[in-house]
Amino acid sequence: MDWRHTRNVAIVALSFQGNFNYFWLRALEHRFPGRSAGMIFRKLILDQTFASPLATSVFYTGVSFLEGKEDIFADWREKFFNTYKTGLMYWPFMQFLNFVLMPLYLRTAFMGCSAFLWATFLCFSRQSGDGTAAVALAWIMAPKKQLLARSTDEGK
C-alpha cells in the first residue's frame, strides 16, 4: 500500500472534487431544473463536456503536483484522452441514475460513492496502466493476478 499516494489522492478529492461536485450539481439543477428527458439530456451533455474533462485534469495534475513531479502535465498528456474515453463508458450511466433517482440533497453523496470507484480505477491506471477500458476490465476481471504480478515485480 502506497500511503503517500493515497494521501495525495485524498487531498485532491477532498480539496477539489467534493467541493466542485457540490456546486456543479446545484448549478446544473438551477439552470436545468427537473427530471424531464430534455433536462436530463442537457445535464448529461454539460457534465461530460465540461465537468468530466476538468475533474480528470485536476486529478492528474493535482496528484502530480503533490508528488513533486517536475512536469505535472506528463501523466495528463499521456493518459487524459484514454481516461476521458473510458469515463464516457461509466459516468453518463452513473450521472443518469443520479439525475433521475436522487433528490438534489443526495446527489453529491451518490456522486462521491461513484467517484470512489472511479478513483480506484484512476489510481490503478496512473500507476500501472494507460487509462484505457481494456486496462480497467483486466483489473476488474483478474485483480488477484494483477496484485501477484505487482508483488513479483516489486520483489525483483
Summary keywords:
single chain, 156 residues, mainly alpha, 7 helices
Description:
By secondary structure, this protein is mainly α. It has one domain (3-154). Helix content is 83%, strand content 0%. Helix 2 packs antiparallel against helix 3 (74-87). It is globular and about 45 Å long. The mean pLDDT is 86. This is Mpv17-like protein isoform X2. It is found in: Membrane. One of its GO terms (cellular component) is mitochondrion. Pfam families: Mpv17_PMP22. Its main location: membrane.
Shape: globular
Order of SSEs, N→C? HHHHHHH
How many domains comprise the coordinates? 1
Give the terminus-to-terminus CA distance: 17 Å
Helix content: over 70%
Percentage of β-strand residues:
under 5%
Number of strands: 0
Protein name: Mpv17-like protein isoform X2
Family: Belongs to the peroxisomal membrane protein PXMP2/4 family.
Pfam families: Mpv17_PMP22
GO cellular component, one term: membrane
Q: Any chance you could write out the topology, listing elements then pairs?
A:
Blueprint: H1 3-31, H2 37-66, H3 74-87, H4 91-101, H5 104-128, H6 133-141, H7 143-154
Family: Belongs to the peroxisomal membrane protein PXMP2/4 family.
Keywords: Membrane, Transmembrane, Transmembrane helix
Main location: membrane
